[in-house]
Automatic annotation (TrEMBL):
It comes from Bradyrhizobium jicamae. This is Tyrosine-type recombinase/integrase. It comes from the Bacteria. Belongs to the 'phage' integrase family. Residues 137-238 form the Core-binding (CB) domain.
Amino acid sequence: MAEKLTTQAAEKKKPKKLAGFTIDNAKPKTNDKGKVVRTEIPDGRGLYLVVQPNGSKSWAFRFRIKGSKASKKLTLGPLAEVDSKAPPVLGHPLSSSQARALAARYREEVDRDIDPTAVRKEAKAKAKREAKDAADNTVDAAIVEFLKRYKGRKKQGLRDSTRLLTAHYLGLRPDPEKPGEWRKRTNGGVLKQWSGRPLASITKRDAITLLDRLVDSHNGVTANRTLTVLKTFFAWAVKRDMIAASPVAALDAPAEEKSREHFLTDPELAALWRAADAAGYPFGRLMQAIVLTGARRDEMREAPRSEFEFEGASVALPTGGTWQGPLWTLPEARSKNGRAHLVPLSAMALEILQKLPRVGKSSLLFTTTGETPISGLSKAKERLDAAMLAELRKTDPNYVLKKWTPHDLRRTFSSGLQRLGFPIEVIEECLNHKSGTRSGVAGVYARYRYLAEKAQAFEAWARHVDGLVNGRAVDKVIQFAEAQP
């Protein structure tokens, strides 16, 4: 009889399920110090209605695993504003009936000695691992890894300008706020089409579609260059066992390319110079420096002051004697063909380069930030073209300016030196072309052997440009006999 009374007393102490009115009107309690505190109201079987000091309500399940002295709590979800008969979902708004059903489910697990908080923690960790694995296996992650690790075929590694151009085609650009890291471009590249996709999901059809879009938008050359970059990228990924086979290995160039032979005419060159002079620093001066040196755009754009000896250099010649004069030494690490290049500076080039402003403490000749070479070249080129056309139409109102690139200035420089009577060997050295007839020791010897002739060529070219700009005729240089080795 006593045992029965004890059971009845225990049942009376069990909390009853909260009525809807009680749930709606539940308020947080106030402690002895008059402070409103978080309050838990039991609903039975470990379920509690939690009322925060600000009045917000949620459901929690409290339990104790067998053999453990400490109790644990699992937050089930916020109180739903309206009742629902939908299956309850952990973390979602829950009505009283949904909360009770969810608590009953977890009570069954506890009765089987299963800790629902540990199960949920492991599920979260698994989801996080899967998300990380998925992110690591995307095209985006693979491209970033490729740009970081790919060294090219040369011992000295990939040139910075080549890596930047590769990144451009793939759809990335340097992150200005995090040196050494990359940021997605907003206006093109491979990642505009493939970002977020698993690397292994890319098919030949995907590549064909991407390249066809470029060709159809009249960007055939870009399509060809993109394919070249993709072939290198996917071949690298295959070697690193990231994919089984390259989806672009069997693809041919999607667009036909014609060899460019364009160079600026004398009136166009004069108009370019005047337009660049008006534009000033940095882009206008960059164009003028390229005109006078025949340099590649990025070789000049990225040039630090340390490569220039404005006060004069002294170079010992293999044939005896020395050559002296202002000199730009382009190191092999920055030259396109991996071959160091000596550029004697004409008086005109020296004057322009010496007067370039120094931005902050930067060592770069052409910069606006003081940290990176100038950018925004496309828009600057558009403004320069417009100014050139305005100059040309002063004498011919119907003049049509053909599309040209900074690289065309090298052809203009080359053809100009030929017209001035310089031999092809000297011109090739002025352009730092790697002739197949000179290699090894002979190539090193030739670089110094032609230094004096190069100085004469650069000076003659500068006088020619000055004559075109200022309307003065320049006598043709008489071709000299080549020095014998």
